[in-house]
Design a protein that fits this description.
- With 517 residues, the protein is of the alpha/beta class.
- Helix content is 27%, strand content 18%.
- Strands 6-7-5-8-9-11-13-14-15-16-17-18 form a 12-stranded mixed sheet, covered by helices on one side.
- The longest helix is centred in the C-terminal third of the chain and has 20 residues, at 458-477.
- The N and C termini lie far apart (86 Å).
Length: 517
C-alpha cells in the first residue's frame, strides 16, 4: 500500500466512503500519509452515509458538519438509512442550509425514496432555499394508512411514486424554492437538530398530542427566518404533572413572524403566552371554542411552592345543578358570580395573572373555558410583543367581554376584524362607537365582519356602526382630520337578531359598503 500512488489511493478511499459514515475519519488515523491524503482530498467527503441504528443524533450531526466543512464547497450526496421516521428530520437537518451544493439524497429503511435536487433547480432563479416545512405528527397506524393512501392516489393519477419528502415549492421554472414534508410520531428535540431556516412552518397533530412546551422548544431551532406559522391541533388535553412546571418552556422569539394561525387546540393560552412576535401583522384563531371544561390557567407561572389539590376540597355539582341545561343543549357552567376564580383543573396549585378572575362581567357563554384561555393568551402575546397587528380573525374562537375590552383599548393598528360564532354581548360591539368626546377604539379599523353571532342585537350593531360611520365619514367629506379611519367594508352574516330592517338602516349610512345575508 505504501507504494501505491496517491491518486489511486484516493480512488480506493472514495469507494470505501460509500460503506460507512466514519470511513474517511478511520482511514485518516491509519498513518501520517493517509491522514495527509484525507486532509487534502475534499472529494473524499462528498458522499455522506448516516444510519440511525449505529449513530446517535448528536454524533450524526457532528459527522455531517465535519463532512460539509471538509468537502470545501464541493457538491455532496447523502445516503441515510432510518429505522424510524422520527430520525429523518434530525439526520437531514445539517444539509438543509446547503441546498446549493446538495446533489442527491437516498433514503432507505422506514421511508424509501431517492431525490436528485438538480431536477428542481433553474440556474436563472437564484440560490436554492427551503421555503416551507410541513410536519404531520401521527401514530404508526396513521402513518401507514396515510402512506398507503398516497400510494393509491399516485397510482390512480398514473404516477410511479407518491409525493416524497421534497418537492418544488412552485414550478421549477419560477423559483428555486423547496417544500419539505415529514411524518413523525413526535417533534424532535432541538438538541438533535441543526438550526432550521425557512419562511413557512406548518405543524399538524392528530391522535397524538404534542405537549405545548415541546412545541415551543422545537420552535427555538427554527426562529430566525420564520414568517408564517400554522399549528393545527386535535383538541386533546395534554396531562401536566406537578413536576412539569419546574422546567417551564422558553420564551420563543420569532422576530420576523408576520402571520400566525392556531387551529383546533386547547393549548392556545400556553402557546401565545410564550411567543415573542414583534413583527406580527396577522393572527388567525380558528376552531378554538369548546363546550367542555379543561385547564385554563398557565401551569408554568412561577410560584414559590406548589401543593397538590385535595380532590375532596373541590365542590361537587349537585344533581339539581346537572339538570339545569341551557336551551342550546350545551352542558351548564358556573356563572362568574358563583366562580370568581375558575378552577385550574390541574392537580396542583397555579398562579393567577391579571385578568384571570371572572368577576367583572356575567355575560353568557357556551364556551367559558376556551374563552378564558383564548383571551388570556392574546393578552400575554400582545403585552409582550406590542406587534403592529392589522388583521385579527376569530373563526369559532371567542373571548370574555373583559378580554374584548382589553383588546380594543390597545389594538390601535388593527384594520381588519372578523369574528365567527361568538357569544359576544351587545356591550362589546357598542365599544366600536365613538365616545362622547369623539374618541374611538380601534381607530384604524376599516373592515368589520360579524358572522353567526347570535347574541348580538340588531339595534346594538346598527347604533355602533352608524355612529362610527357618521363620525369618520363626515370628517372626510369636510376635509377635517379625525382620529379614526372610515369603514370600507362591513359584513353582518347569519346573525339571527339582525333583521332586514336593521340592514336598511345601515345602508342609509354605509351604502354599498354593507354586506348582509
Amino acid at each position: 500500500m505504501e507504494r501505491l500512488p496517491t491518486e489511486l489511493l484516493v480512488d480506493i478511499f472514495t469507494w470505501c466512503t460509500h460503506s460507512d459514515a466514519l470511513t474517511t475519519i478511520t482511514l485518516s488515523r491509519v498513518c501520517r500519509r493517509w491522514k495527509t491524503i484525507t486532509d487534502n482530498s475534499p472529494s473524499l467527503f462528498q458522499f455522506i452515509v448516516l444510519d440511525d441504528r449505529y449513530l446517535s443524533f448528536h454524533l450524526a450531526n457532528r459527522v455531517a458538519n465535519f463532512y460539509l466543512a471538509h468537502s470545501s464547497g464541493l457538491p455532496f450526496d447523502v445516503d441515510v438509512n432510518i429505522g424510524s421516521r422520527d430520525s429523518l428530520l434530525p439526520l437531514l437537518s445539517p444539509f438543509l442550509n446547503h441546498l446549493n451544493r446538495w446533489r442527491s439524497c437516498t433514503i432507505g429503511g422506514a421511508n424509501e425514496e431517492a431525490v436528485r435536487f438538480g431536477e428542481f433547480w433553474d440556474r436563472g432563479n437564484g440560490e436554492p432555499k427551503l421555503e416551507e416545512l410541513e410536519i404531520d405528527v401521527l401514530d404508526v397506524v396513521e402513518m401507514d394508512a396515510m402512506t398507503e393512501n398516497m400510494r393509491a392516489q399516485a397510482a390512480a393519477a398514473g404516477d410511479a411514486l407518491p409525493p416524497g419528502t421534497f418537492k418544488p415549492y412552485t414550478i421549477s421554472l419560477t423559483s428555486n424554492l423547496l417544500y419539505m414534508t415529514v411524518m413523525l410520531s413526535k417533534l424532535p428535540s432541538p438538541l438533535t437538530l441543526s438550526p432550521l431556516r425557512f419562511v413557512t412552518l406548518s405543524i399538524k397533530e392528530s391522535l397524538l398530542s404534542i405537549p405545548p412546551d415541546e412545541l415551543l422548544r422545537f420552535l427555538t431551532i427554527c426562529s430566525s427566518e420564520l414568517e408564517f406559522l400554522s399549528f393545527t391541533g386535535a383538541m386533546s388535553d395534554h396531562v401536566i404533572t406537578l413536576e412539569d412546571p419546574q422546567c417551564p418552556p422558553p420564551i420563543v422569539s420569532l422576530p420576523r413572524l408576520r402571520s400566525l394561525v392556531l387551529h383546533g387546540t386547547l393549548a392556545t393560552r400556553i402557546l401565545l403566552s410564550y411567543l415573542h412576535t414583534p413583527a406580527l401583522q396577522e393572527l388567525y384563531l380558528e376552531r378554538l371554542n369548546v363546550d367542555f371544561g379543561f385547564p385554563v390557567l398557565n401551569p408554568f407561572l412561577h410560584l414559590p411552592s406548589r401543593k397538590p389539590i385535595d380532590p375532596s376540597s373541590v365542590p361537587s355539582q349537585s344533581p339539581g345543578d346537572e339538570s339545569q341545561t341551557s336551551t342550546s343543549g350545551h352542558p351548564p357552567f358556573p356563572t362568574p358570580a358563583e366562580n370568581p376564580h375558575p378552577p385550574s383543573c390541574f392537580d396542583f396549585e397555579c398562579a393567577l395573572e391579571d385578568g384571570d378572575s371572572d368577576d367583572e362581567f356575567s355575560d353568557y357563554s357556551q364556551s367559558p373555558h376556551s374563552d378564558h384561555a383564548t383571551g388570556m393568551g392574546l393578552r400575554s402575546l400582545l403585552s409582550r410583543s406590542s406587534p403592529p397587528l392589522s388583521v385579527l380573525e376569530m373563526d369559532y374562537a371567542d373571548m370574555r367581554t373583559k378580554d374584548f375590552v382589553w383588546l380594543f383599548s390597545r389594538a390601535r393598528s388593527l384594520t381588519d376584524f372578523k369574528i365567527v360564532a361568538s357569544d359576544m354581548a351587545d356591550r362589546v360591539v357598542r365599544m366600536l362607537a365613538p365616545d362622547a368626546d369623539g374618541t374611538m377604539l380601534l381607530p384604524r379599523l376599516r373592515s368589520l365582519e360579524l358572522v353567526n353571532c347570535q347574541r348580538l342585537s340588531g339595534t346594538a350593531i346598527v347604533e355602533a356602526v352608524r355612529e362610527r360611520a357618521r363620525a369618520t365619514d363626515g370628517h372626510i367629506t369636510e376635509g377635517e382630520a379625525v382620529d379614526g379611519f372610515p369603514l370600507e367594508d362591513v359584513a353582518v352574516v347569519r346573525c339571527a337578531n339582525f333583521t332586514t330592517a336593521d340592514a336598511l338602516e345601515l345602508v342609509e349610512v354605509l351604502g354599498e359598503r354593507l354586506r348582509f345575508h
